[in-house]
Design a protein that fits this description.
- By secondary structure, the chain is of the alpha/beta class.
- It is built from twelve helices and eight strands.
- Helices cover 52% and strands 13% of the residues.
- An eight-stranded mixed beta sheet has the order 3-2-1-4-5-6-7-8, with helices on both faces.
- Strand 7, helix 6 and strand 8 form a beta-alpha-beta unit.
Length: 280
């Protein structure tokens, strides 16, 4: 299996490490516009070689598109124009509607599989790549009926080899669910970080007193601005919906605290406690 990975960041690099370890790929070629990423990927032996886009996709059995979502949407049409009919292309972006709409009528649409591996950390770049990142996590395949059975099977085999289970849904449903389950967590972390940093200008003790709870809540605020700004723009409508709902509950908490309404506060917290049923 000859695999080309376009984008040598956390996800692409971690996939490469696992594919090499389990023997899924006999040759891994990396494509990245960042020279430092290319050097790091070679130094860590994440890839066997670095190539330009055109050379990298030549003779590839599988191409993994692992760049930020707006960039992926821009390049996917030209990428499908250049591949052989036997080559499978998959993306790993956190939004799916945009890229699926972009190539809906492309003659090689069947060669493309829209996916989202639900795994990651707050770090980025090849130095952040780790083995086992995907183990026991969910992989989502969207609009599979538009992909050839052979292409879907190859991608399923990859994700299962990485230790993931597979969920199927359409692209628009995926983006709504991702906004509520994943994307709002990053917004919350960014906002909390901004709030604390604003106060820390005059009261450094806030950060000195920060406990494990604060660190775990704000961890995602370390995430890549390039990647997440594109995700938020790409997933605009679901994001606005979830931010509005989030703001409504913040307002409820604010009003209850302002009114010394202990019963209301307890009711809100108890309602929130119900999340434990889903997170057993």
């Amino acid at each position: 299996m000859k695999v080309t990975i376009i984008g040598l960041g956390l996800i692409g690099g971690s996939m490469a490490k696992d594919m090499r370890k389990i023997g899924f790929a006999s040759q891994i070629t990396g494509v990245d516009n960042n020279p430092d990423h290319c050097s790091q990927a070679l130094n860590h032996k994440i890839v066997d070689a670095i190539a330009t886009l055109d050379k990298g996709i030549t003779n590839a059995d599988l191409i993994i598109l692992a760049i930020p979502v707006l960039g992926a949407q821009k390049v996917i049409h030209a990428l499908l124009d250049k591949i052989d009919d036997r080559t499978v292309v998959m993306d790993v972006g956190s939004t799916k509607t945009g890229i699926c709409n972009e190539i809906r009528d492309h003659p090689s649409r069947k060669n493309f599989v829209a996916t989202h591996p639900m795994a990651g950390t707050e770090f980025s770049g090849p130095d952040a790549a780790i083995e086992g990142l995907f183990r026991q996590k969910a992989s989502i395949i969207c609009d599979r009926e538009q992909s050839s059975p052979e292409a879907v099977e190859l991608v399923i085999n990859l994700y299962h080899a990485l230790g993931m289970h597979t969920i199927y849904m359409n692209a628009s449903d995926h983006d709504v669910h991702a906004a509520y389950v994943s994307h709002i967590s990053h917004i919350s972390s960014f906002v909390l970080s901004l709030t604390v940093l604003e106060k820390e200008k005059s009261e450094k003790a806030i950060l000195d007193m920060a406990s494990g709870g604060f660190e775990s809540t704000v961890r995602l605020a370390k995430s890549s601005s390039e990647m997440w700004s594109q995700i938020f723009i790409q997933n605009k409508n679901p994001m606005i919906e979830v931010i509005d709902k989030y703001s409504d509950y913040l307002t409820e908490f604010r009003q209850a605290i302002l009114n010394d309404d202990k019963t209301k506060i307890e009711t809100l917290i108890q309602k929130a406690n119900e999340i434990k049923k889903a997170l057993k």
